[in-house]
């Protein structure tokens, strides 16, 4: 049952979204050319037409304002761990690749997809970068974090296509040209990992990889790890019924905002067990193991993570299936609490999944 904080969150969605400052000729810097003059009434560059709290606001002119900005961390050597990273072109996409210190021989490859509702985020964001540094340090694996295009400027399937390009790049050793992969990548131990919208991307990438000849011979997707995955559907499942119909409306509205063409919440890309065809596609993912992680206080997505685990188990999926729940924390908590007890516990569970 959702608590009072979640109910308050829902009430605040339109309030916070409509409090976003209008964009100015200087862009999103917040520096107006004449701050003493308010925007004209019904100015298309200040009239909100779509709010996607807390990520962005779209104005009638088409202008997109992301109120959190886009702070980034440069690639390089992490002084605390010795992990080295660099940004590399990966066919039509780009990736940030991570190498653990003292790497010798062949080691696993983790292809990672960040979250952010398909509309914000990048491998260079501090939380994502620090997470990959920690994951690579603990697991001893090569990390490949994919830069994918963001909606609504680039609606789905753009992010799916970029994710696929990133996986194909890793699976071909960077087209045979990336020295870190050539020297150390064990392509019989490739893992797909993602959080929230990135977990959705990871699942859909695994489905795409099931096509005959999709990946080169010798490449094995050893595991798929979905952390607080973003899935939904037209019909409420489990405890979602207690959230009320406005949640289904909100999920439908935001899903349609990020995808170019869709039937809505019955789209198998966001509801992967919606019909027999979607169920077969999900059951056929070529991953030997699947780990689903949920958070106890993730009121919007916890039930869908449990549903995904339950439905995949019932679908005829032939691999091993694991479920892990973090207690007392909410959605994607680990980016801010990576060194907390729950953050370390979640990370160690993911590392154990990679090392198994």
From TrEMBL:
InterPro entries: AB_hydrolase_3, AB_hydrolase_fold, Carboxylest/Gibb_receptor. One of its GO terms (molecular function) is hydrolase activity. Keywords: Signal. Residues 110-334 form the Alpha/beta hydrolase fold-3 domain. Residues 1-19 form the signal peptide. PANTHER family: ARYLACETAMIDE DEACETYLASE (PTHR23024), OS06G0214850 PROTEIN (PTHR23024:SF641). This is Alpha/beta hydrolase fold-3 domain-containing protein. It comes from Panicum hallii var. hallii.
């Amino acid at each position: 049952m959702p608590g009072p904080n979640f109910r308050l969150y829902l009430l605040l969605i339109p309030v916070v979204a409509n409090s976003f400052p209008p964009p100015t000729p200087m862009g999103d810097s917040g520096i107006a050319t004449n701050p003493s003059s308010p925007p004209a009434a019904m100015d298309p560059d200040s009239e909100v037409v779509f709010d996607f709290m807390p990520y962005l606001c779209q104005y009638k002119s088409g202008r997109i304002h992301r109120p959190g900005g886009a702070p980034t961390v440069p690639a390089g050597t992490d002084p605390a761990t010795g992990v080295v990273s660099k940004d590399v072109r990966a066919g039509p996409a780009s990736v940030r690749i991570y190498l653990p210190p003292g790497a010798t021989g062949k080691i696993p490859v983790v292809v990672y997809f960040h979250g952010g509702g398909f509309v914000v985020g990048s491998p260079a964001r501090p939380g994502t970068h620090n997470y990959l540094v920690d994951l690579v340090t603990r697991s001893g694996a090569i990390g490949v974090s994919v830069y994918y295009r963001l909606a609504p400027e680039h609606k789905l399937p753009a992010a799916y296509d970029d994710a696929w390009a990133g996986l194909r790049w890793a699976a071909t050793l960077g087209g045979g040209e990336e020295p870190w992969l050539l020297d150390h990548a064990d392509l019989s131990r490739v893992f797909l990992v993602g959080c929230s919208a990135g977990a959705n991307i990871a699942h859909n990438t695994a489905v795409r990889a099931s096509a005959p000849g999709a990946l080169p011979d010798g490449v094995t997707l050893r595991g798929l790890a979905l952390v607080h995955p973003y899935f939904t559907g037209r019909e409420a499942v489990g405890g979602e019924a207690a959230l009320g119909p406005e949640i289904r409306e909100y999920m439908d509205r935001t899903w349609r905002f990020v995808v170019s063409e869709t039937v809505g919440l019955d789209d198998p890309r966001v509801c992967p067990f919606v019909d027999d065809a979607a169920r077969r596609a999900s059951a056929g993912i070529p991953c030997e193991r699947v780990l689903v992680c949920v958070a106890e206080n993730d009121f919007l997505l916890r039930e869908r993570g449990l549903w995904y685990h339950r439905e995949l188990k019932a679908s005829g999926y032939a691999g091993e299936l694991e479920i892990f729940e973090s207690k007392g924390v909410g959605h994607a908590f680990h980016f801010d609490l990576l060194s907390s007890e729950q953050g370390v516990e979640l990370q160690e569970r993911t590392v154990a999944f990679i090392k198994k």
